[in-house]
Design a protein that fits this description.
Layout: H1 3-13, H2 19-36, H3 41-48, H4 51-69, H5 74-90, H6 95-139, H7 145-191
């Protein structure tokens, strides 16, 4: 394989990316080849590794770079996780290593999903319990007003607690998404060797 073939193969491996990202990556690697000189093309190809490995690293680097450059959001975290999963799946890994990476992604995803569901259910339960106590208090106010006031007071307190912890819960879930992305990036870098040049 020569420089032209290598860059053509790299372009095809990066087809999921926006065109300007593909062009930037290809310009970077074309300059890398040019600096080494035509006589050292095979040495450069050997140093870089297969195009699929370089493409996988570019995908992972872009995911992390995008997270660092802009404020995090749930959509951005999902997008970054998807890019890193694509990077792991497109990396030239042995079958046992690939199976291990996929199993780790699935198990980590299941754990995170379970934690998020548990947190949402807890906060939802607090809000629902507070509102139920509040409404119950209004229903029994004509029968026994001291008990009704107790229910209304407890309902207001519990609902207030739920409203207070809701923003913190959202921030925690977003932070967990960011930690997942960074963890996946770390996993990717463990199961693939780092290429000599870093995509800018």
């Amino acid at each position: 394989m020569d420089k032209a073939g290598y860059l053509k193969s790299l372009r095809s491996k990066l087809h999921r990316l926006p065109e300007h990202e593909i062009d930037a990556a290809l310009i970077y690697y074309e300059e890398y080849f040019d600096e080494a000189g035509e006589e050292n093309e095979q040495q450069v190809i050997q140093q870089l590794g297969p195009p699929s490995q370089v493409a996988a690293q570019i995908l992972a680097d872009l995911a992390i770079k995008d997270l660092d450059a802009t404020p995090t959001s749930t959509k951005k975290n999902v997008s970054a996780i998807w890019l890193i999963i694509l990077a792991i799946l497109s990396a030239p890994l042995s079958l046992p290593l690939l199976a291990t990476a996929i199993a780790l992604i699935i198990s980590a995803g299941a754990v995170v999903f379970s934690i998020v569901i548990a947190i949402v259910a807890t906060v939802g339960g607090i809000l629902f319990g507070g509102l139920a106590a509040l409404i119950s208090g209004f229903f029994i106010i004509t029968d026994h007003w001291p008990t009704a006031l107790l229910f209304i007071g407890i309902g207001l307190i519990i609902t207030g607690i739920g409203v207070l912890i809701f923003p913190s819960t959202i921030r925690f879930i977003k932070k967990m998404g960011l930690v997942c992305v960074e963890g996946l990036a770390g996993l990717f870098q463990r199961v693939t060797r780092k290429r000599k040049g870093r995509y800018q």
